[in-house]
Amino acid sequence: MSADTVPAAGSAQDRLTPPSRPRRMPRATLYWIAKHALAIALALMFLGPLVFIALTALMTDAQALTSQLWPQSWNWGNFSEIFTTTPLLRWIVNTMVYSLSATALMLASSVPVAYALARIRFRGRKTAFLLVILMMLLPPQVVAVPIYTLWASMGLTNSLWPLIIPMVFGDAFSIFLLRQFMLTIPREYSDAARVDGCGEFTTMLRVILPMARPAIAAVALFQFFYCWNDYYGPLLYASTNADSWTLSLGIASFKALHSVQWNLTMAATILVMAPVIIVFFLAQKVFIEGVTLTGVKG
Amino acid sequence: MTAIRTRRRIPMTLMARREARHGYLFILPWIIGFLAFTAIPMAATFVFTFLNISLNQQEPIAFVGLDNYRRLLGDEQAWSSLGVTFRFALLWLPVVIVVPFLLALAVNSKSIRGSSLMRVLLFMPYVVPFVASALIWQNMLVDNGWVNRALGWIGISPPSWLNDPTWVIPGLVMMGFWGLGAGIIINLAGLRGIPTELYDAARLDGAGWWRQLRHVTIPMMSPVLFYTMILAVVEVMQYFLVPLVLFNGTGDPAGATRFFNLYLYQTFFTYQEMSYGSTLAWLLFVITLVVTLLLFRVSRHWVHYAGER
Questions:
Q1: ipTM score here?
Q2: Same domain, yes or no, for A275 and A144?
Q3: Residue of A50, A131, A142 for testing the chain B interface, max B β-carbons within 10 Å
Q4: pLDDT tens digits for A265-284?
Q5: A138 interaction partners in chain B (CB closer than 8 Å)
Q6: Same structural domain for residues A102 and A193?
């Protein structure tokens, strides 16, 4: 509505004003068209692959190997075939156990550390924060062998435990983001709580935690998606034991076994993606807002 | 600044001491974790570099001095794989830093319809399991795949992305485009955080679109750009999972995807040479650290912290 009327009003006025003015309208229109063309091209680029796998997943084995784009017949049975030929449910349960427990433990352990680094004064706080950053920079391979040996000596390799247990001690990325957010909460809230006789623990639990909820939600979702999509960790610790395979390992092995059955590989891919995409759609507002709020302040 | 300094010189009050005690108590579990999973393993790996641990040898473990480092200096494969990583980084870093910024600028524009839908769409590939997205893009990039067909329609004779050693790196970069969603969101968050008064002031001074970008947006976004740059450097140095999944770690085509980290991974887990692998891992860490420190040093000249106290 307004988009149609505003340029018209502008052009009527243009006749009365100096010659440089009339250019503005077509230029703005061109700009508008260019912007939307770019937006549509981007949308296609991001949607294209999803459409592609959806179409391929519904083809027959033979057609999936051809270069045709549109399925000749709609083979919904491909999806149920995945369930009968692979232990997909087991993979889903394993991935769920890994993602949910890692996320819960990470929150329980990282929040107090972030709170201490952001809101408690003590000597060595700066050094502790530098160590958090150092942990973020460290390539996992530098510590992989000793840690692997540690888990092997405890008999915990061939399972997902080596990926879950370390979360008891906090996660550097989460601590960093939570700390940055907690720094933005005005000091006065803590002071008021202290005047009311709250200790540090109560202040954290009753005052800071509720205020940091968006950041906590964002960090939890980041961790959940990280675990859900993690390939390296399960590959390292669980690849030798098919009973503790996650979806990522499962789908990679599926590709190796059924390399010519692109339709089934793509159907499996869709089944792997579906749960996270649903979670993302439900939580996207919290997620994007959380990231926006945590921001990246120095 | 001075206020804080004088506060420190005052002997700690009972309350301050109690506060500090709580601080240590709160970070204690993390410190234990840091020692157990970072500090001690790091030191252990460093010691390994002077030993001859290898799981498929019968020789007793012994101190070998600088043998592993000498081997590293003469190891063609290590240096050529480092070259692969650097070549990829050269192409990938500008993309991963600049493209999300530009896309965020575009999506942030209020005049675009459906920009909230756009945000969801741009972010979605981030939640697609990476094994799945590698498979999808493998299928998009095969010789008669969608990408090549689209190129054919506009009259470009397309390369064989996954079989040609010169085109496989650009192919991997193209795959990476899909995962830029997180960067876009972080950039969007930064753009939202720029006070509109700055733009009003710039406009009053007669600054056009370009000068607003140059003198308001970019300086205000520099901490965000710096943050994405650091994360990108850390990630690019460790890049290897996509080629591992696509080519089963063979380094095909013709060794063009034998990234340093892939070589490192295989030294550890395929050849089980723990000592030499540790030497390679420490090299990777030192390179990452040096590059990061350099970036921090240079950042003083271009990164602007508006809220700096």
A1: 0.76
A2: yes
A3: A142
A4: 888 888 877 877 777 777 77
A5: 38, 42, 285
A6: yes
Which two tokens mark B37?
């999973």
Set of chain A residues whose Cβ sits within 8 Å of the Cβ of B137:
49
What residue numbers bound the domain in which A61 lies?
Answer: 26-81
Please indicate, yes or no, whether residues A129 and A44 belong to a single structural domain of this protein.
Answer: no
**Which residue has 């950042």 as its token pair?**
B299
What count of other Cβ atoms lies within 10 Å of the Cβ of residue A101? 17
Backbone angles phi, psi at B96, to 5 degrees: -75, -20
Distance from CA of B28 to the nearest CA of A (A): 8
Residues of B in contact with A38 (CB under 8 A): 106
**Contacts with B266 (C-beta within 8 Å, 6 or more apart), sequence order:** B249
pLDDT tens per residue, range B80-100: 999 999 999 999 999 999 998
Q: Which of B5, B116, B127, B142 to mutate to test the interface with A (most CBs of A within 10 A)?
A: B127
**How far apart are alpha carbons B44 and B110 in whole angstroms?**
54
Q: How far apart are CA B307 and CA A235, in angstroms?
A: 43
Does A16 map to a domain?
Answer: no
Q: Mean pLDDT: which of A259-263, B204-208, B282-286 is highest? A: B282-286
Q: Which of chain B's residues have a Cβ under 8 Å away from the Cβ of A63?
A: none
Nearest to A49 among B34, B136, B190 (CB): B136
Is A47–B133 a contact, with Cβ atoms under 8 angstroms apart? no
Nearest CA in chain A to B234: A137
Is B41 in contact with A142 (Cβ distance < 8 A)?
yes
State pLDDT tens for residues A114-154: 999 988 888 889 899 889 988 888 888 888 888 988 898 99
Homologous superfamily of the B74-299 domain (CATH):
MetI-like (1.10.3720.10)
Residue B70 has pLDDT above 90, yes or no: yes
Taking Cα atoms as reference points, which of A185, A187, A191 lies closest to residue A210? A185
* Residue B282 pLDDT: 93
Stretch among A22-26, A49-53, A118-122 having the lowest mean pLDDT:
A22-26
What's the number of CA atoms in the CB half-sphere (13 Å) around residue A16? 4
d(CA A234, CA B89): 26
- Best of A40, A122, A227 to substitute, by most chain B Cβ atoms within 10 angstroms, is A122
Please give the average per-residue pLDDT across B106-130, as a whole number: 73
- Coil vs helix vs strand at A110: helix
A175 in the same domain as A70: no
Nearest to B42 among A142, A236, A292 (CB): A142
pTM equals 0.80
The string of pLDDT tens digits covering residues B219-272 is 888 888 887 888 899 889 999 888 888 888 787 787 888 999 999 989 988 888
Judge: A231–B126 Cβ closer than 8 Å, yes or no: no
Are A251 and B131 within 8 A, CB to CB? yes
